[in-house]
Amino acid sequence: MKRKLIYLLSVMLLLSLTSYGAIKIKGENKQYQGEGLTIVTSFYPMYIASLNIADGIDGVQVVNLTENQTGCVHDYQLTTKDMRTLSGAQVVVLNGGEMEEFMEDVLDQQEGIQIIDSSAGMKFLTGSTHDHNHEENGDQQEDSHVHNHSNINGHVWLNVERYMKQIQTITDGLCKIDPLHEGMYRKNEETYLVKVQSLKGEFDSLKEITSGTEIIIFHDSFAYLAEELGMEVVHAVNTDGETALSAGEIAEVVEEIKLHDIAYLFTEEQYEHTIAERIEAETNATVYVMDSLVTGGLDKDSYLKGMKKNIEILKEAFAVKNK
């Protein structure tokens, strides 16, 4: 027990050093003097993190701007209801990594809101995001499966170590804005980090058998899961409900699978799996449906449960292939 406590304190110290100076708070970083604090989060992963950090603190409420079932917010558009929600916020917690471009103009006009960018100072993976632009002519055919709003991949919460840094950054920001409740924020932070750290241990053990494995992903969020496990993403195909791959694009993916002898296709549970299943039928690869943790209920343990489910799927996948 003593050894475990020392280890946790070391982890928290490392996270503190990593996030020091990486807190991005808009405006003059004023301490909040009101009777109640409303924290508005941009979308589901930030909601669950903030819900844990602010758990049980009187006068502090966490509200998710987008519906918990919205999913990825690349193409989200603010509603009248969202504008009302933002008008009542003192703090807005963002994921960062250009995930919240839909909010930028509105937030620039909100003078009284302080913004915490949970991934400030973090180096992002690069790769496709979402652009629904499918050209099939000339030189563009090779890149027609890439959905570029930006070259930044902002889905950092799917790497547990990065998610722990986000927890640290959110906590540091809230403590600066609301120092009256710093002790409770810190206590909640420690409690949550203990739980998330247990996931990190499971991923580290799993990495012993996954490291170096070549995979194909059907949502670029899984690039961070691959990073966590030392896997190499050979091809990222985005199938987000509005995207249809041409026969030529599917053939290209099939060719890559055969060329690299790829056995694992990781797709997202919130979208249809038709394309992945079609590719599976034409190869020896197997489709595994993972959770990108962008939707869920009000349970503050949703991230933990979703990641544990992903871990079990990965264990099953590699147990089958290694028989």
UniProtKB/TrEMBL annotation:
Keywords: Signal, Transport. GO terms for biological process: metal ion transport. The keyword Signal applies. The keyword ATP-binding does not apply. Residues 129-146 have a biased composition (Basic and acidic residues). Signal peptide: none annotated. One of its GO terms (molecular function) is metal ion binding. Residues 126-148 are annotated as: Disordered. Pfam families: ZnuA. Gene3D superfamilies: Nitrogenase molybdenum iron protein domain. Belongs to the bacterial solute-binding protein 9 family. This is Zinc ABC transporter substrate-binding protein.
